[in-house]
Write a structure and sequence with these properties.
By secondary structure, the chain is α+β, with helices and mostly antiparallel strands. It is 59% helix and 12% strand.
Length: 350
């Protein structure tokens, strides 16, 4: 799966980076296709290979010179709006086309190369070159503009999809938390106040929803707040093994990804068991990436009615929308425990 564009990937102007290798390669390929079309249309059969060579040399000269000119002017063009930038870029390309055509005619006359030029090139060479170049430049600039608008639309749709997926999983633990607060209000008001603070932080993070993600350290702190609430409700039945010191706390991930995994572990693995169990949260590094492993014991009857597939699929969809990669959340059942492995590719919040 190709990674969706982010706001940092899409430039402010619709003009691409003409200094980049991808753009240069695309220009060379498109120029060669144009040379092939110009050669096949009018040339005689015996002249086609020599005509193709000359056409390719000329078109690539124009194309690469124009690309280099726009590369040198990219900083100035980036400061302009779309219409001024397009106008200036178009005028620069027309200037390059005219200059290369005049230089070609001068060299051909001085070096006596006129007989080598295809017959259809000799008459009106300058104006034919300028007309064809003007059409090609206009089509190319229009393509860059449409592509830029498409990227912006895809980014907006991806953000809306990500926010919709996050909105679905926000209130999962709300009712249990409110019941816990209600039971503690009279007997242990200080714990009730601490629980309300933990709950407020969780919902503050949920409502924030930064497009570029949150640091892993912040996400793990929110996960601990969630476990604090569940410990008050489940007491000694909930034991937690927490080993995440090896993780890079600056890695970026979508907000409230870890908490739903912990909620599934509590709901399906700890709460149904009279004796409770141990929820293990272990983190490690794998190169520049982070790996977070969460596992819990299974209840005697397996997963509770309703399963946890919807929550897990939502998490997978959010991870895919954020990172542009599938397969970042893997689940398995082994040794009577449910294992969830979350891989966090190296990425920093802006």
């Amino acid at each position: 799966m190709t990674r969706p564009a982010t706001s940092r990937d899409i430039p402010a102007t619709f003009l691409p980076d003409f200094c980049g290798l991808r753009v240069v390669f695309a220009v060379v390929v498109i120029g060669e296709m144009l040379a092939l079309v110009l050669t096949l249309a009018p040339a005689a059969t015996g002249e086609r290979w020599s005509a193709l060579g000359l056409a390719s040399l000329y078109v690539q000269w124009v194309a690469l010179t124009g690309t280099a000119t726009l590369c040198l002017a990219r900083r100035h063009l980036a400061r302009l709006g779309d219409v001024p930038a397009a106008t200036l870029a178009y005028l620069l390309l027309l200037t390059v086309i005219a200059a290369v055509a005049l230089i070609t005619l001068a060299l051909a006359a001085r070096l006596g190369l006129d007989p080598l030029l295809p017959a259809n090139w000799r008459d009106g060479f300058f104006w034919r070159s300028l007309a064809i170049g003007a059409i090609a430049a206009a089509v190319s600039l229009r393509y860059f503009y449409v592509r830029h608008q498409w990227q912006r639309q895809v980014l907006a749709e991806a953000r809306a999809h990500l926010e919709a997926l996050q909105a679905r999983i926000r209130p999962h633990f709300l009712f249990n938390s409110l019941n816990t607060v209600a039971s503690l209000t009279r007997s242990r008001p200080e714990l009730a106040e601490a629980t309300i603070e933990d709950l407020a932080e969780l919902f503050r993070a949920s409502l924030g929803n930064p497009a570029d993600g949150v640091p892993l350290a912040v996400e793990l702190e929110l996960a601990q707040r969630y476990l604090n609430i569940e410990r008050l409700r489940l007491g000694e039945r909930l034991q937690v093994s927490w080993e995440v010191a090896d993780l890079d706390g600056e890695l970026a991930l979508p907000a409230l990804i870890v908490q739903p995994l912990l909620e599934n572990a509590v709901y399906h693995g700890i709460e149904p068991r009279a004796e409770g169990g141990t929820l293990r949260v272990h983190g490690r590094r794998d190169g520049a990436d982070g790996v977070l492993e969460i596992d819990n014991p299974l209840a005697s009857g397996g997963l509770r009615p309703g399963g946890n597939h919807m929550a897990l699929e939502n998490i997978r969809a959010r991870l895919a929308a954020f990172y542009g990669r599938d397969g970042l959340l893997q689940t398995a059942v082994a040794d009577d425990r449910f294992h969830a492995t979350l891989r966090l590719p190296a990425r920093r919040p802006s």
